[in-house]
Design brief:
Elements: E1 12-15, E2 20-23, H1 29-36, E3 39-46, E4 49-59, H2 70-80
Length: 89
């Protein structure tokens, strides 16, 4: 947050190779916070085993606008089996 405190919010994530893609709109609070401070943390729990988890900490290395939702559609298919329902911003 602007005062340096942590923020936690559910986001969709995707991965192809090493980088992790975090899907969020440029106007979102998480986008604003990571513009100011690039440190991020992700915590995931296995849907079938709530005792299995992974935590990842890192830094934003690249910001890529996705006005046509091409990257978002790939991640959306993984979560829902459908293209992204989001409108471009």
């Amino acid at each position: 947050m602007p005062d340096g405190s942590q923020q936690s919010v559910p986001v969709w994530v995707g991965r192809k190779g090493e980088p992790i893609l975090i899907c969020t709109g440029e106007g979102s609070l998480e986008a604003k916070n990571t513009s100011r401070d690039g440190r991020v943390a992700i915590s995931m729990v296995d849907f079938t085993n709530p005792y299995a988890e992974v935590q990842i900490r890192g830094r934003v290395i690249d910001r890529r606008p996705d006005p046509d939702l091409k990257a978002m559609d790939i991640v959306s298919h993984r979560y829902t089996g459908k293209p992204s329902p989001c409108d471009s911003q």
